[in-house]
Amino acid sequence: MTERVVIRPLRVDEREAWEPLWAGYLKFYKATVPAETTAVTWERFHDDAEPMYVLGAFVDEEMTGIVHFLYHRSCWTVGNYCYLQDLFVNEGARGHGVGRKLIEAVYEKAKAAGASRVHWLTQFENARAQILYDEVADRSGFMQYRKIL
Predict the structure, then answer these.
(1) Gene3D superfamilies this protein is in (predicted)?
(2) Could you give phi then psi for residue 55, rounded to 5 degrees?
(3) pLDDT digits (tens, 9 = 90+) for 12-54
(4) Domain range list for the chain
(5) Euclidean distance between CA atoms 98 and 90, whole angstroms
(6) CB distance 101 to 136 below 8 Å
(7) Residues 132-147, buried b or exposed e (16+ Cβ, 10 A)?
(8) Which residue in 30, 12, 144 sits closest to 83, CA to CA?
(9) Separation of alpha carbons 138 and 147, rounded Å
(10) CATH says 5-135 is which class?
(11) b/e 57-83 (16+ beta carbons within 10 angstroms → b)
Protein backbone atom coordinates (compact mmCIF):
# COMPACT_ATOMS: atom_id res chain seq x y z
CA MET A 1 0.00 0.00 0.00
CA THR A 2 2.84 2.45 0.74
CA GLU A 3 3.55 2.98 -2.95
CA ARG A 4 -0.02 4.29 -3.29
CA VAL A 5 0.24 6.71 -0.36
CA VAL A 6 0.45 10.40 -1.23
CA ILE A 7 1.33 12.84 1.56
CA ARG A 8 0.57 16.52 1.04
CA PRO A 9 -0.60 19.66 2.84
CA LEU A 10 -4.36 19.90 3.14
CA ARG A 11 -6.17 22.62 1.26
CA VAL A 12 -8.60 24.93 3.01
CA ASP A 13 -11.49 23.29 1.14
CA GLU A 14 -10.67 19.83 2.60
CA ARG A 15 -11.96 20.44 6.12
CA GLU A 16 -14.91 18.10 5.56
CA ALA A 17 -12.53 15.20 4.83
CA TRP A 18 -10.14 16.15 7.67
CA GLU A 19 -12.72 16.54 10.41
CA PRO A 20 -13.71 12.83 10.75
CA LEU A 21 -10.04 11.92 11.16
CA TRP A 22 -9.61 14.65 13.77
CA ALA A 23 -12.72 13.34 15.54
CA GLY A 24 -11.30 9.79 15.38
CA TYR A 25 -8.08 11.00 16.96
CA LEU A 26 -9.95 12.71 19.78
CA LYS A 27 -12.11 9.63 20.32
CA PHE A 28 -9.05 7.38 20.47
CA TYR A 29 -7.63 9.53 23.27
CA LYS A 30 -11.05 9.92 24.93
CA ALA A 31 -10.76 13.68 24.53
CA THR A 32 -13.07 16.45 23.46
CA VAL A 33 -12.45 19.96 22.27
CA PRO A 34 -15.05 22.66 21.69
CA ALA A 35 -16.22 23.22 18.11
CA GLU A 36 -14.68 26.70 18.31
CA THR A 37 -11.26 25.17 19.02
CA THR A 38 -11.57 22.87 16.01
CA ALA A 39 -12.54 25.84 13.82
CA VAL A 40 -9.64 27.98 15.06
CA THR A 41 -7.22 25.07 14.65
CA TRP A 42 -8.30 24.60 11.03
CA GLU A 43 -7.89 28.36 10.40
CA ARG A 44 -4.40 28.32 11.94
CA PHE A 45 -3.29 25.53 9.60
CA HIS A 46 -4.03 27.85 6.68
CA ASP A 47 -2.70 31.11 8.13
CA ASP A 48 0.81 31.90 6.91
CA ALA A 49 1.48 33.81 10.15
CA GLU A 50 0.93 30.66 12.24
CA PRO A 51 3.64 28.00 12.82
CA MET A 52 1.05 25.18 12.70
CA TYR A 53 0.69 22.74 9.81
CA VAL A 54 -1.40 19.79 8.67
CA LEU A 55 -0.57 17.04 6.20
CA GLY A 56 -2.91 14.40 4.90
CA ALA A 57 -2.21 10.86 3.73
CA PHE A 58 -4.20 9.81 0.69
CA VAL A 59 -4.64 6.31 -0.66
CA ASP A 60 -6.44 6.19 -4.00
CA GLU A 61 -7.42 9.85 -3.40
CA GLU A 62 -9.13 9.01 -0.07
CA MET A 63 -7.75 10.72 3.04
CA THR A 64 -6.70 7.93 5.41
CA GLY A 65 -4.45 9.77 7.86
CA ILE A 66 -3.46 13.16 9.21
CA VAL A 67 -0.57 14.69 11.07
CA HIS A 68 -0.43 18.08 12.81
CA PHE A 69 2.87 19.68 13.67
CA LEU A 70 4.21 23.01 14.80
CA TYR A 71 7.51 24.77 15.31
CA HIS A 72 8.65 26.25 18.61
CA ARG A 73 11.71 27.89 20.14
CA SER A 74 14.11 26.13 22.47
CA CYS A 75 16.66 27.26 25.01
CA TRP A 76 18.92 24.44 23.80
CA THR A 77 19.37 25.49 20.17
CA VAL A 78 19.32 28.59 18.03
CA GLY A 79 16.90 26.98 15.60
CA ASN A 80 13.41 25.73 16.24
CA TYR A 81 12.20 22.31 17.30
CA CYS A 82 9.31 20.63 15.56
CA TYR A 83 6.56 19.18 17.72
CA LEU A 84 4.53 16.45 16.04
CA GLN A 85 1.35 17.08 17.98
CA ASP A 86 -1.24 14.74 16.50
CA LEU A 87 -0.97 11.65 14.27
CA PHE A 88 -3.96 9.57 13.26
CA VAL A 89 -4.54 6.86 10.68
CA ASN A 90 -7.90 5.23 9.99
CA GLU A 91 -8.18 1.76 11.49
CA GLY A 92 -8.38 0.10 8.07
CA ALA A 93 -5.17 1.75 6.90
CA ARG A 94 -3.07 0.96 9.99
CA GLY A 95 -0.17 -1.42 9.62
CA HIS A 96 0.38 -0.51 5.98
CA GLY A 97 3.02 2.22 6.33
CA VAL A 98 0.72 5.26 6.30
CA GLY A 99 1.77 6.45 9.77
CA ARG A 100 5.43 5.97 8.92
CA LYS A 101 5.03 8.03 5.74
CA LEU A 102 3.32 10.82 7.68
CA ILE A 103 6.13 10.90 10.25
CA GLU A 104 8.79 10.87 7.53
CA ALA A 105 7.01 13.75 5.78
CA VAL A 106 7.19 15.76 9.01
CA TYR A 107 10.90 14.93 9.24
CA GLU A 108 11.40 16.31 5.71
CA LYS A 109 9.42 19.48 6.43
CA ALA A 110 11.26 20.05 9.72
CA LYS A 111 14.66 19.55 8.13
CA ALA A 112 13.79 21.96 5.32
CA ALA A 113 12.64 24.51 7.93
CA GLY A 114 15.96 24.23 9.79
CA ALA A 115 14.56 22.48 12.86
CA SER A 116 17.09 20.41 14.77
CA ARG A 117 14.65 17.79 16.10
CA VAL A 118 11.16 16.40 15.82
CA HIS A 119 9.55 15.21 19.04
CA TRP A 120 6.18 13.92 20.19
CA LEU A 121 4.31 12.22 23.01
CA THR A 122 2.14 9.15 23.21
CA GLN A 123 0.31 7.39 25.98
CA PHE A 124 2.08 4.56 27.77
CA GLU A 125 -0.80 2.26 26.77
CA ASN A 126 -0.50 3.04 23.05
CA ALA A 127 1.61 -0.07 22.46
CA ARG A 128 0.65 -0.51 18.80
CA ALA A 129 1.89 2.96 17.86
CA GLN A 130 5.04 2.50 19.93
CA ILE A 131 6.10 -0.38 17.68
CA LEU A 132 6.36 2.14 14.83
CA TYR A 133 7.76 4.94 16.98
CA ASP A 134 10.57 2.70 18.24
CA GLU A 135 11.56 2.09 14.61
CA VAL A 136 11.55 5.72 13.47
CA ALA A 137 12.77 7.62 16.55
CA ASP A 138 14.57 7.34 19.88
CA ARG A 139 12.82 7.30 23.24
CA SER A 140 13.90 10.38 25.15
CA GLY A 141 13.76 8.81 28.60
CA PHE A 142 11.70 11.73 29.89
CA MET A 143 8.20 11.65 31.37
CA GLN A 144 5.73 14.43 30.80
CA TYR A 145 4.33 16.39 33.74
CA ARG A 146 1.64 18.97 33.31
CA LYS A 147 -0.81 21.17 35.13
CA ILE A 148 -4.04 22.00 33.32
CA LEU A 149 -4.96 25.65 33.90
Answers:
(1) 3.40.630.30
(2) -120, 150
(3) 999 999 999 999 999 999 999 999 999 999 999 999 999 999 9
(4) 5-135
(5) 9
(6) no
(7) bbeeeeeeeeeeeeee
(8) 144
(9) 26
(10) alpha beta
(11) bbbeeebbbbbbbbbeeeeeeeebbbb
